[in-house]
């Protein structure tokens, strides 16, 4: 999977750096959306979102099925929101149990959330190579003056 740096305004980068949960949307084999809350990391330099999970989790199975059905990678979207502030990161997704990639995902997760992620025996990482970013300016809306 090719990766490219993602340029974000400072306010968006800061927002994505907050230790919050997000929603991850993947597509089930029947084409319907599966949306689930996740903890994640975003590496803007690599243009990569990482989500650790179990290999048997629906999100990992959806990505794996999409890779088989749709070619080199499935599509996925991750959205971090706080009220009306939000940023969505979309891209091609893959799932891997490669030890080096898992170790990097765990390292970044631990730094972000100040605790290690769960460590089931079937731990994998869903990686999204971001190629589309929505709502790059997650500032609160200006207050109306009456």
How would you describe this structure to a colleague?
The chain has 146 residues and is α+β, with helices and mostly antiparallel strands. Helix content is 25%, strand content 38%. The chain is built from three helices and seven strands; from the N terminus they run αββββαββαβ. It has a seven-stranded antiparallel beta sheet. A hairpin with a 2-residue loop joins β5 and β6 (85-96). The protein is globular, with a radius of gyration of 15 Å. The mean pLDDT is 88.
Give the spatial strand order of the biggest sheet.
2-1-5-6-7-4-3
Helix share, percent:
10-25%
* N→C terminal distance: 52 Å
Rg over alpha carbons: 15 Å
Q: Would you list the SSEs in sequence order as H and E?
A: HEEEEHEEHE
What is the total tally of β strands?
7
**Helical stretch count?**
3
- What percent of residues are in strands? 35-45%
| Most strands sheet | 7 strands, antiparallel
Overall SS class:
alpha+beta
**Global shape:** globular
